[in-house]
Specification:
By secondary structure, the chain is of the alpha+beta class. A hairpin with a 2-residue loop joins strand 1 and strand 2 (about 45-50). It contains three helices and six strands, in the order H-H-E-E-H-E-E-E-E. The longest helix has 19 residues, at about 5-20. The protein has helices at about 5-20, 25-30, 55-65, and strands spanning about 30-45, 45-50, 70-80, 85-95, 100-110, 115-120. The N and C termini lie far apart (about 55 Å). It has a six-stranded mixed beta sheet, covered by helices on one side.
Length: about 140
């Protein structure tokens, strides 16, 4: 395994650790200033294309604010030269209390030692029923 291959593998681990901390600065430290993010959903064929570090950061910060418990459980990272694939399970609670739990993956492109393209794909699954808190009086 080359040093660059190992570096990129570690970069993906660093990226998802930052996502799970909801650390937008840490996420963006892994990306180029001209990064392209294709979100899993949106009006375009690619979902929703967001370009440039400032706008991509804002998109991630909205996700963290809208779903404060959002997490990505990575099941695999694979690096192939200037490209990579990460497989994950996304879990989050929406503002109305509904749950999202779905498998997905990201396709990446690298420019040197940073990510220049992140394209997200997620299984389309109906929202799950909100988890009802236990009533302490009845427990």
């Amino acid at each position: 395994m080359s040093d660059l291959h190992a570096f990129r593998q570690a970069l993906l681990q660093q990226l998802f650790a930052a996502f799970n901390r909801h650390d937008s600065g840490g996420v963006m430290a892994c990306m180029t200033d001209d990064v392209i993010f294709d979100a899993a959903a949106g009006p375009e064929m690619c979902g929703r294309r967001i370009t440039g570090a400032m706008d991509v950061r804002a998109a991630f910060e909205r996700t963290f604010a809208d779903m404060p418990d959002a997490s990505w459980q990575c099941t695999r990272h694979a690096v192939f030269g200037n490209r990579a694939l990460s497989e994950w399970i996304f879990r989050a609670t929406t503002k109305d209390g509904s749950r999202i739990e779905a498998q997905g993956c990201d396709l990446f492109q690298f420019s040197g030692d940073k990510i220049c393209v992140k394209s997200a794909f997620r299984k389309e699954r109906p929202l799950q029923t909100a988890v009802q808190p236990k009533d302490p009086v009845r427990s």
